[in-house]
Amino acid sequence: MANDETHHAMRQIAEIALPLGNDVQTVLPVDDVQYNTKGSNPPFALTEQTGGLKILDCIFLAPFDNEGQPMLDPAGSIPGTYLSIYAGSILDFEGDCIVNAANTGGISGFGVDEMINRACGEALIKPARRNFNGIPTGEAKVTPSFQHKKVHHIIHAVGPVFRANGFAAALHPLPELQRQLFNAYQSALFRAVELDAKRVGYALLSAGVFRGQRPLDEVLRIGLHAIATTFQECVAQGVRWPLKEIAMVAYTPGEQEALTKELRKLLGIGKIAMVLPPLGQVLGWTKKGKD
C-alpha cells in the first residue's frame, strides 16, 4: 500500500470508537487456538531476560474475518503480532523504538520523559523536540534516539491528565479523556508502522501522576484495547503491518500486576486475540543448552 493510501487508512482507523466495558473476562483455551503456533516458533526470540527486562506474559494478536475465522496470508500462515508485558525500565528495552510518556510542551518533563532525555543526550534530543512546536494531547511525534543505542527512534506520545476537581472534569469530561488516551497509544503505533519497526516498547501512558485518581487498571485497559484494536483495523484496511512485537513495560510491582491482569481480560474480546501456550513452554522453545 502506498504511503498516501496508508495515511488515509490510518485516518479512517482513528475514527473508530472503542467500548470500554468492565465485564469482559473471557480467556480462550489453548486447545481452541492450536493454529496460532502451527509449524514454527514465535517470529522473534522470546527469552526470560531481554537486557534488563523480564518478560511476564504475552498473547498473540491475530486478524479475524467477519465470520470469526483467522485470516491467512498468501503463504497460508496467520499474520500477527505478539503483545508482551515486561517488568523493568523502558530504557532497557531493545528494539526499533520506544514510546515516551511526554507532555504537551514536547521538550522535557519528569520521570520517564526526563530519563529518556538524559539517555539520548539532552543537548541532542531537546533541540530536535523543540522542532515539534508542542504535541497535542492524544498525538505522537518522533525523534532519533541519538546516544541511546538500544533503539533507533523515540516516539513521544502525550496522554491526558485525569483531574479530580469539578471544574476540570466539566471542561474535559471523562469519556473525552479516555478517548485521548486511546488516541495517544494509537498515534504512537501509527508512528511505529511508518518507521517500519519490528519491535516497539511502550512506557505506560497517563499511568503515573497524569492518572490522578483514576483506577490504574482502567488506564492500562484503554492502552491494551487501543493496541489490539488498531492492529485489527490496520490489517482489515490493508495497511502493511511490520510489527512482530509490541511490548508494554511496567516498572512498579503494582503496574506489573495490574497490566498482567488486564492482558488476560483482553483475550477473546471481539475476536482480536489468541492465547499462546503457557509462557514457560514458549520460553522453552528458545532456551539453548537447557533441558
Structural write-up:
- With 291 residues, the protein is an alpha/beta fold.
- It has a single domain (3-14, 23-286), classed as 3-Layer(aba) Sandwich (Leucine Aminopeptidase, subunit E, domain 1).
- Helices cover 34% and strands 16% of the residues.
- The protein contains 8 helices and 9 strands.
- The protein has helices spanning 3-13, 112-120, 122-130, 166-171, 174-194, 216-236, 253-266, 279-286; strands spanning 49-50, 53-61, 81-87, 97-102, 140-144, 153-158, 199-203, 245-250, 273-274.
- Strands 1, 2, 3, 4, 5, 6, 7, 8 and 9 form a 9-stranded mixed beta sheet that branches.
- α6 (216-236) links the parallel β7 (199-203) and β8.
- The model is unreliable at 16-48 and 276-291 (pLDDT under 50).
Describe the structure concisely.
The protein is an alpha/beta fold and 291 residues long. The chain contains 8 helices and 9 strands.
